What we know:
Helix content: 25-40%
Structural class: alpha/beta
Distance between the termini: 27 Å
Strand content: 25-35%
Amino acid sequence: MSPVFDMDTNRLRQITERFKGRRLVVLGDLMLDEFIWGEVRRISPEAPVPVVEVRRQSCHLGGAGNVVSNLLELGATAAVVGVVGDDEAGERIRLRCAEAGADTSGILTDPSRPTTVKTRILAHSQQVVRFDREDRKDLSADRATVIRALAEAAIDSAEAVIISDYEKGTLTGLVLKAVIERAQQQGKFVLVDPKIRNWPHYRGVDVLTPNQSEAEVATGIEIVDEASLKLAAIGIRDSLDCRNVLITRGERGMSLLDGEGRLTQIPTMAREVFDVTGAGDTVIATLALALAAGANIEEASIIANHAAGVVVGKVGTATVSLSELVSAMTG
Length: 331
């Protein structure tokens, strides 16, 4: 059996106390998460579907924007690099990032595509349906070159780089290769929340955080036990020459294959699970911030696991505050 990693709470506190002021770059797919909240009291006479009586609406930064929100809630500073459309949703993203304190000079407006918007309709805190407005084709070569330059400039003053890939076209192969190489040259941590579409372009990163389904698709290995889990993790590490692989596994927690080839199981810390929306954003934000604050990969992973345990207990796109994280780790 693989070891289950544990930490002294004093050490956890020491690391989180160094979160404040750390500067990170978030490069990836920006989107707006809309939530329409209501109640269902009847079925439509027009079709066998529920009628949702709308009570309120809310709007949050999603995708790479949610990674930024998590970093800022934890006390870090963040520069965001991504693309929005020339529309109201794009302006909302830019404004919300700026109001939260993020450096928005890396946000590019592309009039040829809409801002990605995910709209979820919830009744009694349960999601009824989701509809997406988006254009998933890759950026044009000219705009990819601009994003590359914006990201490279932001890296120069950062301690770590988070690549948040939602397959919405921002992260072309050219952009990924250039940004990863620039960060490596400067000795900066590079962490990637991946998608299969860009898999070959993540070569050489410090940490890759696929979920179990992505790990299985990428390797062709069905994960059914510890042996197949380790085989899949090693396959990912070797094929991409990355240092660490952290596979997120839902209610089974996380599994870390570190640079020494050790497989460590990290059980979930969630007491209740209401919504997993954005949990991966919280994981990679907290993981990167902990590494920038001096944690080793095992320590960073357990801190990120605690953070995930907090956000899945909330409904909708959520973040974890520093006080909530410390309480979860020490309580």
